[in-house]
Design brief:
This is NCS2 family permease. It is built from 19 helices and 4 strands. By secondary structure, it is mainly α. A hairpin with a 7-residue loop joins strand 2 and strand 3. Helix 8 runs antiparallel to helix 18 and helix 18 packs across helix 19.
Amino acid sequence: MANWIDRFFGLNENGTTIKRELTAGLIGFFTVVYIIAVNSLILSESGMPVEYAIIGTIAAAVVGALLMGFWGNAPILLVPGMGINALFSYTLVQSMGLSWQEALAVVFVSGVIFAFVAFTRFSKMLSEAVPHSLKEAITVGLGLFLMLLGLEKGGLVGPGDGAILSLGSLSDPLVLATVLTFLLAIVLFIRNVPGNFLITIVLGTVIAYFFGMIDLSQLSEPGVNTAEAFAVFGSMSFGSILSTTFWVAVFSLTMVLVFENIGLVHGQVNFIGRPEKYTRAFQATSVSTMASGFLGTSPTVASVESAAAMAAGGRTGLTALTTGFLFLGAAFFIPLIKIIPDSAIAPILIIIGGLMLQNIKNLDMKDMSETFPALLIVALIPFTYSIADGIAIGFILYPVLKVAIGKWREVSPALYVIACLFFVNYVFHVVG
């Protein structure tokens, strides 16, 4: 058995062992398992029952692990992406007016297009077409958006009198619980305590309980039967597929998924010194995205937490498989996940957002034709509460500035096409 595993995953040629891969998968699981609670609560704001969201999140993580393990053979953890789940709930559903079932159909169709790109030469063409500055800006903008969501969910900021936002009051139990949990979370994170996010959720829930924010009697309430929650599988609705809104949503989500994952997967395979794994890992990511729509969750992405598993020695798909099987066990803790309060989740959103913000150091501030479109993406994603709109403005402005200063040759033909598509998308969005 050990010999078969060694040969299938190429453990020797990747300089790793079964024990090291299993350990890396375990560490990766404890690093990313928080996504079950966080993603489920964000998806529930689209109107999706939280039990449905939990089942969909777990199922997508397991399927993503199987795809990455057996096809991509890389230690990349595919789980519903932070930022993308916000786009699902706040943009596709709340802003564009789709139901959560229709939004799942958007995810599926976007996944089909993503897979087409990943399995053809378009993958390489798009990767080379998009400037480095715009790729980095998407990550930074998503980070700022997540920080804003975390601050709002924790009651730390809210609508103000005469101001866009104002600080919350420590007399509010939600605010105080969030502040205490955040202090705990940031200390655990900076000290690099294994499973720090999971510890934060547990202790943050305890803190909320002492502030009277949790009713443990909820654990005994029948609510929606967990078994019934499996009905989320295949709950996509294509009722609005002929509408402009549906296809605007598909275009916007596809652009975000393709360009974000190009950057993530490239960075991760280079981190382990195996750039040759990029193609298959990217393909596995695309198929996992398509499966997400059927399974009932926002799209999976190559999570930034994969770095924890890689740092622990993970080099092959065996690491991803280990994490996936551990996610199956998490299904037995759904009643506990349901009582986790916003004050326990908000600090994690703030910290992850802060990590993503660090990419701003990769922008070259000397050339404003490069930097300004990137900075607009960073600013407009949170300010407009729309990831799609933020990206669109940056991608439109970039070629316009290059043409204006006579550097139009620096823009690839593909990017001119992408910018035009974004412009058409923006016009339809405004008119609609």
